[in-house]
């Protein structure tokens, strides 16, 4: 009698582990977005490593990425510093965002929005709800717009857009009152409904108007 082959144990599915460098990146980004690290502050990598109970190497990787994002900068003989925030820099980020998102809207408008309307509507409703914590509100809004751009199916475009939105959020938090007066908010639900049947030209116009709502002074020289 042939002996039965032992059954192979099925590997249990577990959530992918977050790398230490990603953990350090998320930790630093949270400190930056909550002003625990403000423009002009010097970063102590060793202290960050101790706070996270990890080595300095993954912290360095996170710092390099944040430098590439334009949020941190290396100063010779001083170390790493949080970048200063200037209105013209924020203006540049918003202009880049507009160029990327308008190009994306020409691709995803119409059927792709219709096919994903349910998930997008949930995000749009969350984005339209007023939140006393501006940072939370803007994070939700960014999530909605990134979900729209993801419909293009172009990873490089989504990656570039995500990076721009991250830096814009950091700058916008620092310059909030100058950029987006209290109470100025466009409807994401109306935008979503319009994009379901919009032509590429109309979708581009809708996104441009949405981005510029309440920020007219940043674009007055582009007319």
Could you characterize what this model shows?
With 223 residues, the protein is mainly α. It folds into 2 domains: 20-82, Arc Repressor Mutant, subunit A, CATH 1.10.10.10; 87-215, GntR ligand-binding domain-like (Four Helix Bundle (Hemerythrin (Met), subunit A)). The protein has helices at 20-33, 45-52, 56-68, 87-108, 111-115, 117-128, 134-150, 155-174, 176-179, 188-195, 200-212, 216-219; strands at 42-43, 72-75, 79-82. Strands 1-3-2 form a 3-stranded antiparallel β-sheet, with helices on one face. A hairpin with a 3-residue loop joins strand 2 (72-75) and strand 3 (79-82). Helix 4 packs antiparallel against helix 8 (155-174). It is elongated and about 55 Å long. 22% of the residues are buried.
Taking the alpha carbons of the first and last residues, their distance comes to: 87 Å
Largest sheet: 3 strands, antiparallel
Whole-number tally of structural domains: 2
The number of distinct β-strands equals 3
Uncertain ranges: none
Overall morphology: elongated
Instruction: Please compute the radius of gyration using only Cα atoms.
Output: 21 Å
Enumerate the strands of the largest sheet in spatial order, edge to edge or round the barrel.
1-3-2
Q: Give me the CATH superfamily of the largest domain.
A: GntR ligand-binding domain-like
Examine the secondary-structure arrangement and name the CATH architecture of the largest domain. Up-down Bundle
Share of helix, binned: 55-70%
Order of secondary-structure elements: HEHHEEHHHHHHHHH
Determine the mean pLDDT: 84
β-strand amount: under 5%
Q: What is the structural class? A: mainly alpha
* Count, helices: 12
CATH C-level name of the largest domain = Mainly Alpha
Might you state the CATH topology name of the largest domain?
Four Helix Bundle (Hemerythrin (Met), subunit A)
């Amino acid at each position: 009698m042939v002996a039965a082959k032992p059954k192979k144990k099925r590997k249990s599915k577990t959530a992918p582990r977050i790398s230490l460098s990603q953990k350090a990146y998320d930790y630093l980004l949270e400190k930056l977005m909550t002003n625990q690290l403000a423009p002009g502050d010097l970063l102590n990598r060793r202290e960050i490593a101790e706070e996270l109970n990890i080595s300095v190497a993954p912290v360095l990787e996170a710092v390099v990425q944040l430098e590439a994002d334009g949020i941190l900068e290396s100063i010779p003989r001083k170390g790493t510093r949080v970048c200063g925030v200037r209105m013209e820099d924020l203006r540049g980020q918003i202009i880049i965002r507009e160029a990327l998102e308008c190009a994306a809207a020409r691709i995803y408008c119409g059927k792709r929005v219709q096919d994903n309307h349910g998930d997008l509507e949930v995000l749009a409703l969350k984005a339209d709800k007023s939140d006393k914590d501006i940072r939370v509100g803007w994070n939700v809004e960014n999530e909605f717009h990134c979900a729209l751009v993801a419909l293009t199916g172009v990873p490089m475009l989504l990656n570039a857009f995500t990076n721009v939105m991250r830096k814009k959020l950091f700058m916008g938090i620092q310059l909030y009152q100058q950029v987006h007066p209290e109470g100025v908010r466009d409807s994401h639900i109306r935008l979503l409904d319009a994009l379901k049947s919009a032509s590429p030209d109309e979708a581009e116009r809708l996104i441009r108007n949405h981005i510029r709502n309440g920020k007219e002074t940043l674009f007055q020289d582009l007319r």
